[in-house]
What we know:
By secondary structure, this protein is of the alpha+beta class. Helices cover about 40% and strands about 40% of the residues. It is built from six helices and 13 strands. The protein has helices at about 1-50, 55-70, 80-95, 95-100, 165-175, 180-185; strands at about 105-115, 115-125, 130-135, 140-145, 150-155, 160, 185-195, 200-210, 215-220, 225-235, 240-255, 255-265, 270-280. A 13-stranded antiparallel beta sheet has the order 6-5-4-3-2-1-13-12-11-10-9-8-7. A hairpin with a 5-residue loop joins strand 5 and strand 6 (about 160).
Amino acid sequence: MKLKYHLGVCFVAGSLALAEAQNNTSSENQILQDTSAAADDQVEEAETALIEPTDADEADIEAIDLAEDETTAVVLPDATVISNLFNGHIEALGGERALRRIKSRVTKGTLELADTKAEFETHQSKDGSFLEVQHFPGNTIQTGFDGEIAWKKAGDEAWESLSDNAAKRARFFSSLAGILDWATFYSSTELLPDTEINGRPAKVVVARTFSGEERRIFFDAQNLRIVRIDEDAALGDSGPVSVERYLKDYRSVDDVVVPYLEETVFPTSVSRKTVWSVEQ
Length: 280
């Protein structure tokens, strides 16, 4: 009887101990679950905070972006900008290789000045020599350059040799690839403030020759083509006058881009040179 009693007591005690252990285990599991859920909530809140920045965070980000812009902004020296403009213009014309590949060019068109209209044809060769013939009513004017001497002839008059400066000018502007020598043709260059030509932004460079001539060259800021040149030009016996030359209607001819329209604005008149055809 006592044995049964002890066995019953032991069984009850063991059951109670097991129940208590199970209860403790359940409590611990509940605590762990509650702790894990709380941790998950904290992670979710942190992620939300990262995904949805506050106004203060956005202000800090904007300040950092501005600081980076100020740090990374690079201001190029004027000499580098000018070099980039001329070299960019060369690329806009087709590139150095394409320009040097041209052996000759014959250009034909019309020249209009006031009420006078003439036909012209220009012959250019790779060595820099050229001949332009203008057929006015009752008169023919020829201008040429043989690589050394520049000359002019009107009608039946004798040939007239032009100045050395005119020869140098002819060598640069009449050469098929003269623009490639811009760095040696001009003794100095200066970058001026930007402007607009025909409603488009333009870069402006003052270029001076070794003989003292000065011209302002306007580059289209987007395609880098030269769109205007201001300079002093000789006009008969009246001496030099300020003129503006506008280069327009650029077209591609055998991988090289050529202006088909040139308008020259004089103090009291405007001349218009329109190209019909270009053969290379």
